[in-house]
Amino acid sequence: MSSRKLSNSSSEDMIDEKKRKRMISNRESAKRSRMKREQHVKDLNDQIMYFKNKRSEMIQEINEIGQLYAGIESENRLLRLESEELRKRLESLDIVSRYMCEANEPSMEILQDPLLKPWQPSFQSQPIMTSAGIFQI
């Protein structure tokens, strides 16, 4: 019996040793798994913070662009009004200009009047005769 008992005891010791090694291995594996999961959660949290910051930056940029757009749209509206006002003024000036040209357009009779164009002799000029004795000293 004692040899059987030794054999049993030795076999149980071996089983206990295997259980203990397996338990240690399982603990280490669980620890690695927890650490890996913690690292994964940390990485996810880092990504969340990164994307939150990016989102805030983009919202700020969108708001700035929206303000610029509103300013440009307002300026554009003013320029359109000014353009329309200038177009109307130009039309008015064109009307006045045409009226003035028609009112000031001389008739053909007036253009032929020799007194209006003294630089163009329209009649036969005659030589001026002077006597030599007028200019004596």
TrEMBL record:
InterPro entries: bZIP, bZIP_plant_GBF1, bZIP_sf. Its main location: nucleus. Residues 1-12 have a biased composition (Polar residues). Residues 28-39 have a biased composition (Basic and acidic residues). Keywords: DNA-binding, Nucleus, Transcription, Transcription regulation. Residues 16-79 form the BZIP domain. Gene3D superfamilies: 1.20.5.170. Residues 1-39 are annotated as: Disordered. SMART domains: BRLZ. It is found in: Nucleus. One of its GO terms (molecular function) is DNA binding. Pfam families: bZIP_1. Signal peptide: none annotated. GO terms for cellular component: nucleus. The keyword Lipid metabolism does not apply. It comes from the Eukaryota. PANTHER family: BASIC LEUCINE ZIPPER 1 (PTHR45764:SF31), BZIP TRANSCRIPTION FACTOR 44 (PTHR45764). This is Basic leucine-zipper 44. The lineage of its organism: Eukaryota, Viridiplantae, Streptophyta, Embryophyta, Tracheophyta.
